[in-house]
Amino acid sequence: MSLILLLTQQMCVYLVIVYLVSKTPLFKLFAETSKRLPHKIFIYLVFSSFCIMATYFGEQTSGAIANTRAMGAVLGGLLGGPVTGLLVGLTGGLHRYSMGGFTDIACAISTSLEGLSAGMISYYFKKAGKSEMVYQPIVVFGVTFMAEIMQMSIIVLVAKPFDQAWELVKLIAPPMLLINSLGAAMFMSIVRDQKAMFDKLSSSFSTKALKIAERSVGLLSKGFDLESSKKVAQIIIEETQVGAVAITDTTKLLAFIGLGADHHIPNTPISSKITLDAIAQNSVMFADGVDTTYSCSISPNCSLGSSLVIPLRSNDEVIGTIKLYEAKNKLFLNINRTLGEGIARLMSNQILYGRFEQQQSLLMQAEIKLLQAQVNPHFLFNALNTISAIIKRDPQMSKQLLQQLSQFLRINLTRTTGLVTMADELEHIDAYLAIERARFIDKLQVNIDIAMIYHHQKMPAFTLQPLIENAVKHGTSRMLDAGVIDVKATLDGDDLLLNVTDNAGLYQPSNNTDGLGMNLVHKRIQNLFGSQYGIEVECEPDVFTRVSVRLPLKEMDQ
Amino acid sequence: MISCLIIDDEPFARQEVADLLDKHPDIKVLGQCSNAIEALQQINLLKPDLIFVDIQMPRINGMELIAMLNPEQMPRAVFITAFDEYAIKAFDNNAFDYLLKPIDEKRFNQTLDKVRTNMTPQPMTQILPTQLAHLPCYSGNKLKVVATADVEFIVSDVGGIHVCSNKGFSHTQLTLKVLEQKTALFRCHKQYLLAPSAISEIEITDTGAEVTTHSGSKVPVSRRYLRELKQLLGFQ
Known about the structure:
Chain B: One of its GO terms (cellular component) is protein-DNA complex. By secondary structure, chain A is of the alpha+beta class. Chain A is about 60% helix and about 15% strand. Chain A contains 15 helices and 14 strands. Chain A has a 5-stranded antiparallel β-sheet, sandwiched between helices. Chain A has a 5-stranded mixed β-sheet with strand order 9-11-12-14-13. By secondary structure, chain B is an alpha/beta fold. Chain B is elongated and about 65 Å long. Chain B has helices at about 10-20, 35-45, 60-70, 85-95, 105-115, 175-180, 225-235; strands spanning about 1-5, 25-35, 50-55, 75-80, 100, 135-140, 140-145, 150-155, 160-165, 170, 185-190, 190-195, 200-205, 210-215, 220.
């Protein structure tokens, strides 16, 4: 009975050690199964020393040692695999052998075999995809129990004289079987609990990070300014519960929320050295309030005691910082440090994406502007020539044509890239056609059939007029016979279809600027209204070309 | 007296030139044409000394029109353009006469002075297209343009020059000589031009050979041109 108590005492020493280790980062090594060599060496060292300690602390009993060596060997095997297990067992066994006694050989062999067999079992679980099984205390209990039975058998079989061995086994088997199995199981139970806690912690970390990402998505891509920064800072402080959150660009504070918001005023220049350093060095700065003190540069009464400053980057260039603070009486959590860097990356990406989008849209607008400003020179000079030709013959008409041409050019030069109404487009078309009719007289006939009810329909500026200009330029003006262009507005379900049909049938898909112009109109409509809308071209050579614009028929208040 | 034709697809543009010419009694306007096909016919018919020709015209432009003319009856040409950077550069480089729309009367008069002193047509081969992509044709009274790539063969008879494409026959004002020079068609007979790509079968006959085209027409090949045909097709 006293043997049980003694062994229990030993076991308790181990469990206390394990418990203490479980509070350090080292413990993570127990909780993971890895093939990496450093991990294996760690397992080997820890459990070999367990084995050796077990032998030292063991109780001298009838010329042998009652001990908890099996715990070390079995756990080493289970956590480290067959090779590590064997090595742990061998180390413990050889050490035991060096201590002498009539069971020295039996103990050396059995400890090695214990490590090996536990390793084999761990290997088996791994192969079967059940590696979690080695963390089950009940399994560990069973494995250790069997291992100890094996050890006892070996002692009986190997140790001489047999009688003495038999007597010894009768004495030590029950306590050793019980305590070793129990100890190993409890050890693993601590590992398992700690592992579960760790998983829970990282999952809460991930949840937090995801939540911040989800809540802040799209905010910064619209622009990195006072308003968006304030919203993001609010989200971060709500999700991380830190003392305060600040966001800066490279020169001034954009947002400050939390403790000390009374004297950290947004839209003022950056005052803290640590922030300026982070910007200048493009690196993360951390004043933990212990080794590196943080003291507010504005107010001596500021209650903030630690600060983490992370640069926001756009293509490696610092464009601002995000700062997390804790109060003087609070510890800056490690988790918030990691989270902070993640948030900074998230924000950087969003800002970058926003800038990219903005540039794209600017580029598109510039392209549209450029195309619009490019009045077809042929059209312009021919128009002027027509006016010049009739100026003496019909001054009234030439005056009118000059008015129409001015009107056309004015619309071209001043119209925005936004939405206009059908009536606006028709005005542009009228001015254009007045001139083309004068140029081609009876060789051009344009029939516009668009009911009044559609005159309020909104569409991107320069949707319809360029199509009619194209129909003239690439269609009817190239015909030997008279050209006819029909412009129609029809309903197709909830969509409005605008058809521009010429009787030339000379359409050829091209990469020139006219094609580009049509593509731009198409893209713009799709961007505004969705991919089911846009432009389609249908052509029967020498018979007709029909360009159809599909628009959503509804009030659009953009 | 200098006779001239005005060729432009815009009525007021033609009118403008005619109005400007009113002040020059030594120049007589024979007529106006609204496209290159009409112009080709009128030039062949009226043989003007001078043409005012707009570059930008439907289907066949002013440059192509000049390229289609027989060198013997080439009139002196003054180009007119609204806007054509490349052509203008070429005109300037070669000192060819051209006018910009709207036409400046002073420049118009200077151009006429230059023309009067030298009526010889300027050699323009370097700026003209070497190959004709389209052939101006008539089908009955209707003007049409046949893509050169669609032509199988061209035959000349007492009725004129006939272009046979995969869409049927039509009549053209162009001469066999111009067609031979400015298209990929080759001479296979005194009266025939043949597109090598249209050949489906060749049958050797007493007089040379007979080619069957893809659309089933028969084209004679005289002995004189048979060797060339064989070479063209890679025989011997």
